[in-house]
Design brief:
- The structure is a single chain.
- The protein has five domains: 150 residues, Agglutinin, subunit A (Orthogonal Prism), CATH 2.90.10; 144 residues, Orthogonal Prism (Agglutinin, subunit A), CATH 2.90.10.10; 97 residues, Hepatocyte Growth Factor; 100 residues, Phosphorylase Kinase, domain 1 (2-Layer Sandwich), CATH 3.30.200.20; 189 residues, Orthogonal Bundle (Transferase(Phosphotransferase), domain 1).
- The chain is 24% helix and 27% strand.
- The strands form twelve sheets. Strands 1, 4, 5, 6, 7 and 8 form a six-stranded mixed beta sheet that branches. It has a six-stranded mixed beta sheet with strand order 38-42-43-41-40-39, sandwiched between helices.
- Helix 9 runs antiparallel to helix 10 and helix 11 packs across helix 13.
- It catalyses: L-threonyl-[protein] + ATP = O-phospho-L-threonyl-[protein] + ADP + H(+); L-seryl-[protein] + ATP = O-phospho-L-seryl-[protein] + ADP + H(+).
């Protein structure tokens, strides 16, 4: 019997995921991320202390305390270096944490250097308590150091932030949900007896101003998380100020509790059911039961700093029950970094040059009204009384002005310059924001380098000509020029009428390139990036100030069908603008030459990344899937004319230098008017990604793109092509068949076998596969819209079990 019991214990000890659950942790014990033990459990197993992988970067680990019995293993504490150097400790996978025989806790990196030490000696043993407190104790059993005394962004039940007469105690928010660097908000327990929330500077932590406080005084006040679930501020006179109303909402017996200063600056109390049957407050997830302040978007108006969101963005609530603040960019602006939106937004167009005169400024820029959004600061000039039209004109001609704000009730106008701060969306805003953006009738060629030089000398040229030639000669010259230009227009009107109409209707100003410009930019079309049915794509570089890299698609065949395709592509892309679509910069329509000029995508097509020998990180694949879905959502539902791409495949999804996915190649797109739902056309697309209805006598809808997206979604999950003939198991030859079989048999893990990151996120893998199977339904009416697909991927809506698509591949060519 002893032998029988020994082997299971031995297997546990050798398992890399094994965590030691013991009352006392003795001297000489070690932890390692990939060793026999990576964490120490509390006696109940509710909490663990040890190495916790950093979300999105599994090569690095935190030293942390986390809730170990719940699905997302929420971190409640993480180590920082020192109070003087409060950087979060993040270490590689070959690090070791050692409770030394000398009675110290020491973390060492790969080269043996000490990375972190809580600076305590004489430790006799350690304990991970069921309260979530990790404690180093002396021989007398008294704590020498404990995580409850050094909180990061969270406090737990029974935890107290005690008073200090010498220094403030605080919680510091993370920079982002998955970024444990010191963030932009601070909960400060001050020596004078006040508890306050501050907006702070990153990374220094210097305080800007408080946006919530108890407004109290008194020595040695304490922040207490009571055993009943109530968070309160205890004053020296015995008064208790309730910070949360969490008491009684979820009993300690049935719910885990935590109170966290979140990255958006809100101090929230959460509960999580210990058992699924107890989840009456929102299921198996953290649910907010209290928050301070109640409306963060309107709580902060800071004279220094950007406010709740980054500069040039605005704050709004995202509509979920947990009321998480969401940051948005105004139209014609985009985030500096989609993954780090706190950095703010920038103009997604050429800024207003101060070399432009008033007439050129009015021709190149216009104002777009925005309602319900306000940036209360950044004013630099005020006019009163004044009309709205004059207010707007004064902003357009002023190169410093980024927007004007007009109050109709008082006839007041404010001009604002960048950066804009403290932006928020509010129902009470009665003023109209007039945002300065490029004119829909302007051309990008107006603002290129050569043109700028011409503009700077234009006034001098006109003045010199007038002095030399005289007024009458100049007038005659102008009249002759008009006559010659009119004759030329009559000759070429029929040939170029389509493009002239296009330029007037385009939402984005497209530049017209000459063939010689593009020939020079591409070094005589030397470097080939790719080739398709309609032409070859070359790499090039413009001779502008930024030396912009471009991709030039050269249409080789001038047959009527190809000519039509060229016009469709220019018209389609010229009227679109989205972060997940490749941007068309301009075109060439010179003689028999037809060329399209796109922004250059550094990381090339998705198939190059996805089907390489090195598997991309799981989070990268998730962001790509969401990016493609959002790009299709724009094409299908947010354009003035619905656009069906008709050839969604990895080769037509390009990646920029941040691996942001952008849909390209609209040459096969079909435009639908707003009152149309389907169109009839010849078979289009690429083998393996084509929806079954292409081969049936039925109309084609946007659901063909949904089908193709389903195939790509499975390829992203599994990191393999849809059709692979050289596989050992025939059942795995066609990915869509195999994924369906694995889903039906409850063996999703087979699809991501050997992919540790995906296996760690197996719940999300299962969700993505379910969404893909919905997209792959043979009957188009059974497939969800791309809006529904996006919501299901984001986890915003529940995903019912998809029907078994018995023949969803049977019609492949």
């Amino acid at each position: 019997m002893a032998v029988v019991l020994f082997f299971p214990m031995l297997l546990q000890l050798l398992s890399p995921t094994y965590a030691q659950a013991q009352k006392n942790i003795t001297l000489g014990t070690t932890l390692a991320p990939q060793g026999p033990a990576s964490s120490w459990l509390s006696p109940s197993g509710d909490f663990a202390f040890g190495f916790r992988p950093v979300e999105g970067n599994t090569s690095f680990y935190l030293i942390a305390v986390w809730f170990d019995k719940i699905g997302d293993k929420t971190v409640a504490w993480y180590a920082k270096n020192t109070e003087q150097d409060p950087l979060t400790v993040q270490v590689p996978s070959d690090s070791v944490l050692h409770l030394t025989n000398d009675g110290a806790l020491s973390l060492k990196g790969r080269s043996g250097q000490e990375v972190w030490n809580p600076q305590v000696t004489g430790v006799a043993y350690a304990r991970m308590l069921d309260t979530g407190n990790f404690v180093l104790l002396g021989a007398d059993g008294k704590p020498k150091w404990q995580t409850f005394d050094m909180p990061s962004d969270t406090i737990l039940p029974t935890q107290v932030l005690p008073c200090s007469k010498t220094r403030d105690k605080s919680l510091r928010a993370r920079l982002d949900v998955n970024d444990y660097s010191n963030g932009r908000f601070l909960l400060d327990l001050q020596t004078g007896g006040n508890l306050a929330l501050y907006l702070v500077a990153v990374p220094s932590g210097s305080k800007y101003q408080q946006y919530w406080s108890t407004d109290t005084t008194g020595n040695c006040s304490e922040l207490v998380f009571g055993e009943t679930g109530k968070v309160y501020f205890a004053l020296t006179n015995g008064t208790q100020i309730n910070i949360s109303s969490g008491a009684g909402i979820g009993s300690m017996a049935n719910y885990f509790h935590r109170a966290t200063l979140d990255p958006d600056g809100v101090f929230r109390q959460y509960v999580y059911p210990k058992k699924a049957s107890a989840g009456i407050l929102g299921g198996e997830a953290w649910t907010v039961v209290s928050m301070q302040p109640q409306d963060i978007c309107h709580a902060i108006v800071s004279g220094v700093g950007s406010g709740v969101c980054g500069f040039n963005s605005y704050c709004t609530f995202d509509g979920t029950k947990n009321q998480i603040a969401s940051c948005q960019c105004p139209p014609w602006y985009k985030f500096f970094d989609e993954q780090r939106k706190y950095k703010g937004c920038k103009q997604d167009f050429q800024p207003h040059s101060c070399d432009l005169d008033e007439a050129m400024s009015l021709a190149q820029f216009e104002l777009r009204p925005i309602y319900g959004v306000d940036w209360p600061l950044s004013d630099y000039e005020k006019y009163e009384p004044i009309g709205q039209d004059d207010c707007g004109r004064l902003c357009v001609v002023d190169c410093f002005c980024a927007m004007a704000v007009y109050n109709q009730s008082t006839n007041t106008c404010w001009k604002k310059k960048l950066p804009l701060s403290n932006g928020n969306m509010a129902d009470y805003v009665q003023r109209t924001v007039l945002l300065k953006v490029p004119s829909s009738n302007s051309s990008r060629s107006i603002i290129d380098t050569n043109s700028d030089k011409w503009k700077r000398s234009r006034k001098h040229w006109v003045l010199g000509s007038s002095l030399l030639l005289g007024t009458s000669i100049l007038v005659n010259f102008v009249l002759i020029s008009i006559l010659l230009f009119g004759t030329y227009c009559r000759i070429t009107r029929k040939k170029n009428i389509s493009l002239s109409q296009l330029s007037s209707k385009s939402q984005l100003p497209l530049k017209t390139f000459t063939y010689k410009e593009l020939e020079k930019a591409t070094a005589c079309f030397h470097e080939v990036l790719g080739a398709g049915a309609s032409g070859v794509v070359y790499k090039g570089q413009l001779e502008d100030e930024l030396e912009t890299n471009i991709a030039v698609k050269k249409i080789d065949k001038l047959q009527p069908e190809t000519e039509k395709e060229f016009m469709v592509e220019v018209q389609t892309i010229g009227q679109t603008f989205h972060k997940n679509l490749v941007r068309l910069l301009g075109f060439c329509n010179e003689g028999s030459e037809r060329l399209l000029v796109y922004e250059f995508m550094t990381n090339g097509p998705l198939n190059r990344l996805l089907f390489d020998s090195v598997r991309p990180h799981w989070n990268t694949r998730v962001h790509i899937a969401l990016g493609v879905a959002r790009g299709l959502l724009y094409l299908h539902e947010e354009c003035s004319k619905q656009i069906i791409h008709c050839d969604i495949k990895p080769q037509n999804i390009l990646l920029d230098d941040n691996l942001v996915a952008k849909i390209s190649d609209f040459g096969l797109a079909k435009l639908l008017l707003t009152n149309q739902t389907r169109t009839n056309t010849g078979i289009r697309g690429t083998r393996g990604y084509v929806a079954p209805e292409w081969f049936k006598n039925i109309g084609i809808t946007s659901k063909v793109d949904v089908y193709s997206f389903g195939v790509i979604l499975l390829e992203l999950v599994c990191c393999r092509r849809n059709v692979e003939l050289e596989v050992i198991d025939e059942e795995q030859m066609i990915l869509t068949y195999w994924a369906n079989d694995c889903y039906r048999c409850g063996r999703i893990g087979l699809l991501v076998e050997g992919d540790d990151e995906a296996i760690y996120n197996i719940k999300k893998v299962e969700r993505f596969v379910a969404v893909a199977l919905w997209c792959l339904q043979e009957d188009p009416s059974m497939r969800p819209t791309i809006l529904k697909v996006t919501q299901m991927l984001d986890g915003a809506v529940a995903i019912p079990c998809p029907p078994d698509p018995n023949s969803f591949i049977s019609s492949l060519p």
